[in-house]
Each structure stands twice: as C-alpha cells, then as structure tokens.
Design brief:
By secondary structure, the protein is an all-alpha fold. It is built from two helices and no strands.
Length: 81
C-alpha cells in the first residue's frame, strides 16, 4: 500500500518542475516557445514521431541492460561457491 500523499503530489511537482526547466532551456536555445507558428501540423507530427523513436531506443537499451544484468545475476546464483 502506498503512503498517504498530500496534494500537490510530489511526483507531479517533480515532473512539473522538469517541464518548466525544459521550457526555459528550450527558449534560451531556440528563442521560441511551443506556441511557435512556423511549423506545420505535419512538422509537429514528424517532431513527435522522432521523439517517440528516440524513446523506443532508450527503452530498448534499458531492457537489454536489465536482461544482461538478470542473466549475470542468475549465473552468479547458479555458480557453486
């Protein structure tokens, strides 16, 4: 059972703070906000697709690491001392 949490939820607050930091960094780098109007709907979809593909690669790498670590852990447990 999860511990009781008062609102605002600390998890949501951490995500919110990260979103604000990313928005500030993006504005400092590119000089525009997400309200920019120089991208077409297709451009926005392409950007989102590329971000999703990056996420898939990161997730696959983590899964590979967990699988590798799990095999090493399992082999260590099976090796007689």
């Amino acid at each position: 059972m999860l511990p009781p949490v008062s609102l605002p939820c600390p998890v949501v607050e951490r995500v919110r703070a990260e979103l604000l930091r990313r928005a500030e960094r993006g504005f400092a780098t590119y000089g525009v906000t997400m309200l920019r109007d120089d991208l077409s709907l297709q451009d926005w979809l392409q950007q989102a697709k590329e971000e999703a593909l990056d996420l898939a690669v990161y997730l696959e790498r983590i899964l590979m690491k967990l699988e590798s670590d799990g095999q090493a852990h399992q082999e260590a447990r099976q090796t007689p001392s």
